[in-house]
């Protein structure tokens, strides 16, 4: 009796497990009606956008990146959402005397254990903390009237935000923008002085450590006060590496649909932050156009033209043909 050979389920299971990878490189076959010139244009488009993301990402890593100013200036129907992710936009955290003192005292104690300060260094660290607390208190005492006006402006803005129906009236929208502009003109100089105190504390506390201690234990950062898990202090560390990663993937043509969709979403969020966009060199229409270009790259599987996706896609195609054969 000849036993019937039962086909193994392993290839089909492997194919199912690889579905996400196939989606990441482009599911369908190569476009059959795409000319050589059109394919070349897709490659150039992919490379140019990839290089832009990569170069901007490396620049942000080298020179630092702060999105708070841009997001603070968000306007339009989505402005409140973008404002909500700006770290300490109203200065409430940095102007909280008790919370600031607790954080700075914690930082001073952490520095002592982090670097292993001796008795002399412990005294120097105490002096640094005392000096910075005096600087902070001087800022608060020297701006009592301004802080009272800041509190009043904050309350006026909160009252306007609690009545969303007023946002449909053009004159009241202009009134809100005027109040906020005047409020920031009073608040920003005070916060700048407070930020200097934070920076001085971190710099001077690390300066107490010897060169050997710094070399062995590394620089100790002073973490800011935060009232939410995700804000610009977190995003600003993530965005530069996001830009670099997207740029590298697009340049290599690797997982191109996923990378291009992520780029399109990021660029479209920039467009929405200034909706409706103004005209001129600062217009976010440019981000909208580039976002649409990323969708073209994603939908055509442009990484399969002179990209690594072509190798992955060809391997799947050969494996499927072998399985069917």
UniProtKB/TrEMBL annotation:
A GO-annotated cellular component: plasma membrane
UniProt keyword annotations, A-Z: Membrane, Transmembrane, Transmembrane helix
InterPro entries per record: DoxX-like_oxidoreductase
The keyword Acetylation is assigned to this record: no
Keyword Transmembrane helix in record: yes
Transmembrane segments: 246-272, 284-303
Protein name (Swiss-Prot/TrEMBL): DoxX
Organism: Rosistilla carotiformis
């Amino acid at each position: 009796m000849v036993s019937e050979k039962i086909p193994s389920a392993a290839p089909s299971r492997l194919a199912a497990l690889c579905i996400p990878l196939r989606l990441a490189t482009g599911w369908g076959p190569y476009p059959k009606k795409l000319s050589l010139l059109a394919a070349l244009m897709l490659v150039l488009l992919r490379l140019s956008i990839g290089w832009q993301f990569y170069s901007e990402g490396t620049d942000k890593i080298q020179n630092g990146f702060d999105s708070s100013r841009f997001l603070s200036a968000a306007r339009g129907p989505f402005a409140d959402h973008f404002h909500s992710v700006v770290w300490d936009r109203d200065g409430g955290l940095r102007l909280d005397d008790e919370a600031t003192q607790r954080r700075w005292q914690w930082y001073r104690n952490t520095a002592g254990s982090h670097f292993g300060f001796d008795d002399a260094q412990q005294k120097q660290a105490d002096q640094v903390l005392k000096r910075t607390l005096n600087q902070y208190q001087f800022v608060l005492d020297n701006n009592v009237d301004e802080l009272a006006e800041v509190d009043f402006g904050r309350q006026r803005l909160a009252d306007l935000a609690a009545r969303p129906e007023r946002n449909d009236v053009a004159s009241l929208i202009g009134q809100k923008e005027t109040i906020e502009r005047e409020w920031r003109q009073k608040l920003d100089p005070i916060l700048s002085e407070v930020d200097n105190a934070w920076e001085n504390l971190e710099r001077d506390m690390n300066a107490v450590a010897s060169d050997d201690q710094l070399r062995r234990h590394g620089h100790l950062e002073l973490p800011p006060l935060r009232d939410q898990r995700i804000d610009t202090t977190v995003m600003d560390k993530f965005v530069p590496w996001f830009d670099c990663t997207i740029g590298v993937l697009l340049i290599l043509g690797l997982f191109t649909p996923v990378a291009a969709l992520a780029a399109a979403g990021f660029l479209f969020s920039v467009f929405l932050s200034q909706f409706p966009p103004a005209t001129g060199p600062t217009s976010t229409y440019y981000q909208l156009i580039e976002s649409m270009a990323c969708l073209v790259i994603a939908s055509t599987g442009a990484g399969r033209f002179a990209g690594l996706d072509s190798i992955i896609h060809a391997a799947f195609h050969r494996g499927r043909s072998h399985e069917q054969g």
